[in-house]
From TrEMBL:
InterPro entries assigned to the protein according to its UniProt record, in alphabetical order: 6-PGluconate_DH-like_C_sf (IPR008927), 6PGD_dom2 (IPR013328), G3P_DH_NAD-dep (IPR006168), G3P_DH_NAD-dep_C (IPR006109), G3P_DH_NAD-dep_N (IPR011128), NAD(P)-bd_dom_sf (IPR036291)
Function of the molecule: Catalyzes the reduction of the glycolytic intermediate dihydroxyacetone phosphate (DHAP) to sn-glycerol 3-phosphate (G3P), the key precursor for phospholipid synthesis.
Major localisation: cytoplasm
Pathway: Membrane lipid metabolism; glycerophospholipid metabolism
Originating gene: gpsA
Chain ranges of the Glycerol-3-phosphate dehydrogenase NAD-dependent C-terminal domain: 179-319
EC number: 1.1.1.94
Lineage: Bacteria, Pseudomonadati, Thermodesulfobacteriota, Desulfovibrionia, Desulfovibrionales
Name of the protein in its database record: Glycerol-3-phosphate dehydrogenase [NAD(P)+]
Amino acid sequence: MQTAIFGGGSWGTTLANLLARKNGSARLWVREKELASLIRTKGCNPWYLPELELSPNLFVSDDLAQVTENAEYFLFVVPSQFYGGVLKTVREHLPKKPVIISGSKGITLDTLQTMSEVTEDTLIGLKPVFAMLSGPSFAKEVSKGMPTAVTLGCKDKTAARAIQDLLSTDTFRVYTNKDVRGVELGGAFKNIIAIASGISDGLGFGTNARAALITRGLAEMSRLGVAMGAQAQTFMGLSGMGDLVLTCTGDLSRNRQVGLKLAEGHKLLDILGQMKMVAEGVKTTESVHALGSKHKVELPITEQVYQVLYEGKDPLTAVHELMHRELKSEQ
Ligand SMILES: NC(=O)c1ccc[n+]([C@@H]2O[C@H](COP(=O)([O-])OP(=O)(O)OC[C@H]3O[C@@H](n4cnc5c(N)ncnc54)[C@H](O)[C@@H]3O)[C@@H](O)[C@H]2O)c1
Ligand SMILES: O=P(O)(O)OC[C@H](O)CO
């Protein structure tokens, strides 16, 4: 079972290493030639995950033909705004019925699409089986073998079972879920709430405020998700509540870090300029803001995060406005 993994960031490297250790081989495509060469000579990924010693069974290259040779599974772990572009260049190397797995969590800015929709559009003419890997999983913890549970959104029962077996280890437990839309929306939306939680904590507000953001963020995520065809129950699982709790409370979250820095008064462009890694929530806030208008769904936390990120609103004013909305019933 050969797997080709696309994306030499922290998550792609972690999953590729997990697969190489578990299945005896895996092939990782790294976009940057210089990084691919450094990984091969140093046996680690010095740019994104230096502390992880990589398996000698992991083949690393910037050459798509070499990486895709004999592959049965195609795992994409690039930032979501680049997912479609990378998939398009890989297309000529894919079989007629490729199994495509996305580890990318986000919604495109230009077309407001989830990764399953981008896959469908990019692979017209092929018959892809799509699966979305999501749930609470910091690469740093997974790479150290710390117990982690995630979920795999996939409509095809046989493929879901096969991918579950492919990826599961003693410390990485993969559940399956038929609700692909719910799994991918949960993984994308939680990043917005992680930014909000970072803002709140950075302003010195307490655990009450954070718990309120997680819970009302979950309500907001479920409202939009159901309007877009997802099942509400999915958001109570690993890709909804699970990833919300992780990234709203865990300081390893890049999205939460963006929020903490915004609360300190830093400008968004300066924060992003100093980050080598991706904080998906920044662009997903803009996409979800537009989706809220399109589906006529009220998204008050997203609205405030959007105004802080893109309209220069003072974070304290955003919190004040959330607290002074019209009083409502919880349901
Ligand atoms: N890191 C984690 O803990 C983690 C866990 C679960 C899911 N994810 C998701 O995985 C995806 C990848 O994130 P990551 O954390 O591995 O990335 P990262 O922040 O560690 O690394 C950045 C990545 O972006 C790539 N990149 C930069 N510009 C690009 C371009 N123009 N075209 C294509 N690729 C480009 C780089 O090659 C590198 O692979 C994201 O959607 C993220 O939400 C990350
Ligand atoms: O560091 P973040 O905020 O991108 O979160 C990483 C993963 O999505 C956690 O599950």
